[in-house]
What does this fold into?
Amino acid sequence: MKKRSKIAIYGLITGALLFLLTNLAGCFIPQSGTEEKKTVVKTESVKETKTEKHSCCSEEENEEYSDNSIYQLESEWITQSGEKFSIGILKGKPVVLTMFYASCTYACPILINDMKRIEASIDSDELKNYKFVLFSIDPEKDKPEVLAAVVKKNNLDTKRWTLLTGSKDDVMELAALIGFKFKKDEKGYSHSNLITFINDEGEIVHQQVGLNQDITSAAEKLLSMNSK
Amino acid sequence: MIAAGLFPQTNKSKMVLISGGLYTPLYMKETEAKQKVNAFYMDVYPVTNAEFLEFVKVNPKWRRSNVKRIFADKSYLNNWKNDLELDENAKPNSPVTNVSWFAAKEYAEWVGKRLPTVAEWEYVISSEKNIQKISNWYSKLSPDKIPPVGSTEKNSFGVYDMYGLIWEWTYDFNTALVTGESRGDSDFERNMFCGNGASNAKDVNNYPAFMRYGYRSSLKANYSTHNLGFRCVKDFN
It folds into this structure.
């Protein structure tokens, strides 16, 4: 009994010290098993989970993006050549983007064509200042090699064009963020026909709804976004 | 005790097992079979202000004054007194509202759960056969002081407050593809959405389901409003 109560007291003191430490140390919380540290243990396990996606306490990282920047998502993707790609890499140049899936036979080819028409409307010496990005909503099927085939089929210049595949959850977050709707059905997906224009900070400045749209005003907006 | 360390084991975060079954989506093609919903655990009650307060205490980036606009609009938690204090219109045991989809999703992940899919949520509410009861609530305005969780109906699954309290976020709210002039197969819709032809509403009498469907299609992920909250679910296996 005596030994147990000693252990209990030491446990409480350790717990109290840890509690103080956690309050001073902010996000870095050591392991603890005592009842009072329920909150602490929770944060520890959350931190472990969250390292996969976001980092809960990387305040410095988050400060490099503006409040309205989609790069706050900090999601990780894979390109058509199998390379890792953090969404924040896009920062620094205006981006024209859409979400699509490779086996889409109707709208997606038209959307890609619309983006190519926008690309073609820009002077060739200005082109290096823009990026064209396609995010797949069908990560199960759209592996890098499938995306690579889309690049080839559409004759896309990979100096400017990037095709990306990622986790289902990251797809959902990006879609939710830009207001892109999509729904799986037995033939593929029903989805928005939406081209989004993003400035060099990652903020949405314009969205074009529909297919085969007049790209003149879109192209003008795009050119006006380039501060370089 | 191990579970207690993983997420708050308060009375209000109790879950109940929802046995799997077949669900009839509101919009379904003639050729489509009913959807199968696998068994899952659902929160008996919506997430409360007290629970959400615990979340923002240890997740400062989700506090009202810190949150990024892209993740939550300016009405985020605006019924709280400040970052870490509730208020008259945000009682501890009332459902947390004025939260965006991103905030709800983060909370769910923080407690080791997730947001329910539309199919899961609709499957659970479909146990309520009295459509008129639901309809009656939808025709009322929500009060400023939303009552505590558990103060409205319990359904046959043992879940409370599926209607009568608040609207609720779902994981895939953005699968609701409708336009203002939704007429199924119009040229306008074909231009807005790439789809596989018209979907027809299965049950034209289920007015509350139409309302929910329309409501979801109007939502944006960073949106927050005074009668929109959420509850969590967890996979069965």
In short: Residues 2-25 of chain A form the longest helix (24 residues). Residues 2-57 of chain A form one domain.
